[in-house]
Amino acid sequence: MSFKRHWLNLMFLLACAELCLSQKKERFNAGVEDRGFTGDETAAGVQVSLEACMVLDSHLTTVFFPIVYIVVFAVGLPTNAMAIWVFLFRTKKKHPAAIYMANLALSDLLFVIWTPLKIAYHINGNDWIYGERLCKVLVGFFYGNMYCSILFITCISVQRYWAIVYPLSQDCRNNHVAIGVSVAIWVGVWLLTTPLYLYDQTVKVTNLNIITCHDVTRPSQNSMAAGFFLTMGTLGFVVPTVLCVVVNVLMLKSLRNSMTDASITKNRRKAVVLIITVLIIFLVCFTPSNIMMLVTYSLLLAQVVHNDYGFYITTLCLASLNSCVDPFIYYFISEEFREQVKNTLRCRSQRA
């Protein structure tokens, strides 16, 4: 798999998004200062900026986004359900890496099952008709999945590093530690995303006569939203990313030093390829959206005029692709998982 090709594909998708936005510019006249996903608040709702109007009325959000989420649902639902089945019922020997991967698959599945609402929302012209509570649940699961995924991928990297660098240590084989860490991650992410339920996620956009879900923030709630997302981005992305990069670099260095052992050269080279693959996918899926989130909410908090709204929500949409990519990571990383998937599919075909 070519890493260069991954980056070219990502750049192509973002270029398409910008093209969709540019085709809409002549349809609007500037009425509100471009301030991203906020605007002027009235008793009836929020009058959003020119940039936000173009995005919310464009094919980017009403055509491209639904296509992405349909792919996420169609691929992510069966593959993550299969992954959980294999980890829980087909894997004979439970080990820490399998525990982390099972939790990662569960996190992806919990997000994927809500994507039909996201698809319907965008197809309906970004008009949310399901109420405030359901919108909050959808948003909570979206960000919960993102940060659970980041943390569990980081745990898998740390566990692999410990097993390679300290192969005789019993800590890397301790399932109780893995279970405890997994529980701590679920509780921590739940606490981290709790503020999402404390302010309005649905907002009526008066100049488009639609009700958005999380796409527009009330100016009166800007400070709370910005403080929350900056905290979540720092704790949920920056810290785990630094740790993940450090342990993978140290692991690559350790593997390179052991390449002189002819008996394990083949396996170690395979491990190096897998480490690089996981690291690239991790950075491609989460880095653009979280960097844009930190930048966007920093500008919002500072009341700085900006027009990166379309680019930001596009990176958030593409981040959801992680939910349908993770099962394939399991397939290529774990030989046991690969064999169990094949066996499960054979059993099903025979029963059919």
Number of H- or I-type helical stretches: 12
N-C termini distance: 34 Å
Global morphology: elongated
**What percentage of amino acids are in beta strands?**
under 5%
Name the helicity range.
over 70%
Count up the domains. Answer: 1
Give a short account of the largest sheet. 2 strands, antiparallel
Structural class: mainly alpha
Oligomeric state, counting identical vs distinct chains: single chain
Going by CATH, what is the homologous superfamily? Rhodopsin 7-helix transmembrane proteins
Strand order of the largest sheet: 1-2
Here the CATH topology equals Rhopdopsin 7-helix transmembrane proteins
Low-confidence segments:
21-35
H-E string: HEEHHHHHHEEHHHHH
Strand segment tally: 4
Task: Specify Rg, calculated over alpha carbons.
Answer: 22 Å
The first-level CATH class is given as: Mainly Alpha
Q: Give the overall average pLDDT.
A: 79
For the record, the CATH architecture stands as Up-down Bundle
Report on this model:
By secondary structure, the chain is mainly alpha-helical. It has one domain: Up-down Bundle (Rhopdopsin 7-helix transmembrane proteins). It is about 70% helix and about 5% strand. The protein is built from twelve helices and four strands; from the N terminus they run αββααααααββααααα. α3 packs across α12 and α4 packs parallel to α7. The chain is elongated, with a radius of gyration of 22 Å. About 5% of the residues have low confidence.
